[in-house]
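[User] Could I get a sequence and C-alpha cells?

[Assistant]
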Amino acid sequence: MTRPQVAALLTACAAVLVTVAGMAFAWSLRPPAPAPQSVEPPPDELRCGATACQPVVKQDVGKDAVELLVGQGSGRIRINGASGRYIFELTIASSGAAITDRSLECVDAEVAVCLVRGAVGNEVWGEVLVRRANAWSRAQLPYVSSGAYLGLHDVNADAVADVVAVQRACASGVDCPRRFAQVFSLVGTKTELGCTAVVNHQDQLPGWPDVSPGAGQLRSCGR
C-alpha cells in the first residue's frame, strides 16, 4: 500500500472514532425517560369499595348540601356546608339496596331530617340522618318497608319529620294488596308512634301516593 493510501485510511478511521465518540457523548446527555403517570386517586377522593365514589343525588338542606355517592358494593353520605363536613357510611348500599336519584328525601327545619332509601327485592330499606344544633348524626334504627314505601311526614305535628313505612298485611309467605302505614318518631322516648288501619289497597292509605296520616289516624300496631 502506498503512503497516500495509508494516510487516507488513517484519516477515515479517525473520522469514525470522532463520530462514535460524539454519538456516545450525545447519548449521555439525553433527557431521562418520563416517569410513568400515576393512576392513584387524589388524596381527598372518597373510595366506595374498590372504586372511587360516584355522585348519585344531592339535596340542599338549609345551608348544608347532602349528597349520596356509590361505588362497588358500598356508598357514602357526604355533607358539606354551614354545619361542617361529615362523611357517613351508606349502610343500606352495603346491604344491597339500589341507590337512585329518588333515594334521598330531606326536610329542613330546626331539627332537619334526611331519609336515604333503596329497594332490596320487594322491600324498601332506609336509614336516617338528623341535624340538631348544627350537628349531623345518624338515627340508630334502620327502617324496612315490606310495602315498598318509605317517606317523611310530620305526623304528630311536633315540627320534626317522622318516618312513614308502608307494610303488607298478609299472611306469612303470601302476597296480597292489603296495606297499613307504620310511623316512627325521631325525637322523644316513644320511637313507634303507631299504625293506621289496614286498607284493602295501597291507594286507600291517607295521602297516597305521599302517605301522610294524621296523629288521630294512628292506633297501637298489631291491633
